[in-house]
Amino acid sequence: MSSETKFLLPEDRIPRAWYNIISDMPEPPAAVLHPGTGQPIGPDDLAPLFPMALIGQEVSAEREIEIPEPVREVYHLWRPAPLFRARRLEQTLDTPAHIYYKYEGVSPSGSHKPNTAVAQAFYNKEEGTKRLITETGAGQWGSSLAFAGNLFGLPVDVYMVRISYDQKPYRRSAMETYGARCVASPSTETESGRAILAETPDSTGSLGIAISEAVEVAAQNDDAKYALGSVLNHVLLHQTVIGLEAIEQMEMAGDDPDVIIGCAGGGSNFAGLAFPFLGQQFRGGRSRRYVAVEPVSCPTMTKGSYAYDFGDTAHLTPLVKMHTLGSGFVPPGFHAGGLRYHGMSPLVSGLVHGGLVEAEAYQQTECFAAGVEFARAEGIIPAPESTHAIKATFEEAARCKQEGVTRTILFNLSGHGHFDMQAYTDYFAGDLTDQPHDEGAMHEALEKLPEVAAG
Amino acid sequence: MSSETKFLLPEDRIPRAWYNIISDMPEPPAAVLHPGTGQPIGPDDLAPLFPMALIGQEVSAEREIEIPEPVREVYHLWRPAPLFRARRLEQTLDTPAHIYYKYEGVSPSGSHKPNTAVAQAFYNKEEGTKRLITETGAGQWGSSLAFAGNLFGLPVDVYMVRISYDQKPYRRSAMETYGARCVASPSTETESGRAILAETPDSTGSLGIAISEAVEVAAQNDDAKYALGSVLNHVLLHQTVIGLEAIEQMEMAGDDPDVIIGCAGGGSNFAGLAFPFLGQQFRGGRSRRYVAVEPVSCPTMTKGSYAYDFGDTAHLTPLVKMHTLGSGFVPPGFHAGGLRYHGMSPLVSGLVHGGLVEAEAYQQTECFAAGVEFARAEGIIPAPESTHAIKATFEEAARCKQEGVTRTILFNLSGHGHFDMQAYTDYFAGDLTDQPHDEGAMHEALEKLPEVAAG
């Protein structure tokens, strides 16, 4: 085991191919269904929304998908991302555990999101898309797509969840700095938005609503396409650069993770780190524990149903089999905006359902407490989303101490919190409260799950 | 010349010694004078404020000063910092110039300031200091000292210039995340602060006032010491890790800078990049142009006097020979808070006075325009201070185009702007205006320059 604390790869170790976990999974993922017919959809059904290259990646069974050179060139701006041994944190926690974290906050927008934003902008540009439409929760995705679209000369429109639009005006400025247009969602620009506002004029919005707005605009404009920052197979695919680098870095460290942890809103940063390791396991390598962490107040994996549901509130998307709280469920306005989604990536959901991935849920105040302790030990102020992975790591480190055993923990520090300091301000002022899971609202939303034939 | 865009050093190339430019300067710096006697001060005069190790570095004539291992160990968290070739920016500007930038925003607090904060916290801890007192303008320095103090178990009190305290609440949250206490300056906690408030109850504050408060508290408390984030020789010394790394990285790039540019508030990020190159020149190497950039509305080097003056408003500090607008000059409340200082590092001032360093001044709106263009080309959103270096780079690149010549420009991107998005919000809203230099206020302040015998 190395005595170093930071493990850096040379630039020529930026991965040349993404890793496609579907190629190694024991069973193929459940089919995606057409909302009208209930039958499996084909590429043509998705063509109004995505370029063909991404539709192809969504269903590919190839193990390795080559990263185009112009995408790798942009990755050079911040990749390979560092992997740290959290030695100071281990001391603070007085744990025998070895704690490592992969740090994705070194990207220009401060999170892991550009890994896929750059790829999506590239393929859209290649296929003649003139404008990209998307939604964003906390703003990490919106600012990342704004950054990427700008690099490839594509204008970007972002529907930003109202609560984050108000809480995080600085993410909006970041999007505008990159030349994007940012609209609070629900907005009056779309039918979906107007319908929500008619019913709930003071709606705080949700990712489900914002997705409806973005999908509606993209579907109605021939030269515009839609881009999604998580959930879909091709998005998780692009994020595997995280885990592919981490595998090499853990080898540099002379250590091997027993437990791999990531926060999960739509699932992409968790999957990006975990899937390349899980792939080794599928191909006969050692088994490890994989932990996806979510907020108690939006407990998709820990309390939701594993069922076919819509990805959005207005039911414009296809039906996917996933963990869901019901597409009508609107989570409370907590600060980890990136974790406020009613659904979960179908790939991650399938693995949770199959018992290969564990799910845990924590309250926001205990997550912020862990985040502050992490910052004081390691120097980096974590994004509110990432504090969920940190809290789960603390719990695991405490179990190691209690049991008197050394386990190696690797977690994904998906972003820094420099845009989210209002959350820390509220935390220090005692203005953050824990929000219980709204069982009633969930059951009401789950009762409206679509009935489907296939599955 | 390499075709790469990013130049990374391996970790074992983190410098092992700081470079002390005094050892190579043709003339020794002007003496620092006691404000009471007008005579050169000795180490004992500074002992109430600084640990002896730093006082020794302030006057050392050694060329290399070893970096203590615990300081290097913390540097590992983010150093070596990357150096980029700005290829996309060169295309945008359509210039034959080669543009490189050293990026210091990768540190936990997002700027170059931790390079010295960590060293200062270390030496204070070594010598038994129990508490650190400092001031901060935009908050980069305060959050960096908070970060460093916390790592070495030292509580930190920060007097933060009122205008920044109000404009940048998120820097305050960052300081609190690291466990520091942050007070708006002028405050009612000190005699200096109360005197200012009695005269100007709605004072926006200034670095000069905040320094008075911090120095007063440190001088009156035996177990507390003062820490300064720029201006002094030992601070500039610690920042030379920037230039030492950049020299190696420019060699990796197979290129050599003709012009070296940095923004200058107190002078430390400019000096950190420039001094190691300038040292080569002093020792018989090739001559280069060095450009220090300041705001038109706080034009210390371009309009101020080169004279003995106090470092603070309440006249508690020794007298140093430097470019100054007069210690009573309060700059307007523009967004580049780190550039709102009436004085300038004596070392940088001496070099400007001697014609070895050029000074330029720009208006804030043209700097933000350059910053936005930079972000759209290179992806990184620059701190408002750093946009001054970018603007000067644009001017130089335009001259290259006009003259049809290729020159190699290297500038210091001293920090990212993720904490400063309010400034970008104001810029996009058209709420930023150019602020003329207040000649009258400067002349009034300069008339009160102290009379001194030595010089």
Brief overview:
Two copies of one chain form a homodimer. By secondary structure, chain A is of the alpha/beta class.
Written account of the structure:
Two copies of one chain form a homodimer. Chain A contains 19 helices and 15 strands. In chain A, the strands form four sheets. A seven-stranded mixed beta sheet of chain A has the order 1-4-5-15-10-11-14, with helices on both faces. Chain A has a four-stranded parallel beta sheet with strand order 8-7-6-9, with helices on both faces. In chain A, α5 crosses α6 and α11 packs across α13. Chain A starts with 5 loop residues before the first strand and ends in an 8-residue tail after the last helix. The relative contact order of chain A is 0.16. The mean pLDDT of chain A is 95. The interface between A and B is large, with 43 and 43 residues.
**Averaged pLDDT of chain A, please?**
95
Beta-strand residue percentage of chain A = 15-25%
* Number of beta-strand segments of chain A: 15
Largest sheet of chain A: 7 strands, mixed
Helix content of chain A: 40-55%
Q: What is the rounded distance between the termini of chain A?
A: 47 Å
Structural class of chain A: alpha/beta
Question: Using only CA atoms, what is the Rg of chain A?
Answer: 20 Å
From the spread of the alpha carbons, the general shape of chain A counts as globular
**Numbering strands along the chain, what is their spatial order in the largest sheet of chain A?**
1-4-5-15-10-11-14
Instruction: Quickly give the CATH architecture of the domain at 6-13 and 73-110 and 234-446 in chain A.
Output: 3-Layer(aba) Sandwich
Count of helical segments of chain A? 19
Low-confidence stretches of chain A: none
| Multimeric organization | homodimer
The largest interface is: A-B, 43 and 43 residues
CATH top level of the domain at 6-13 and 73-110 and 234-446 in chain A is: Alpha Beta
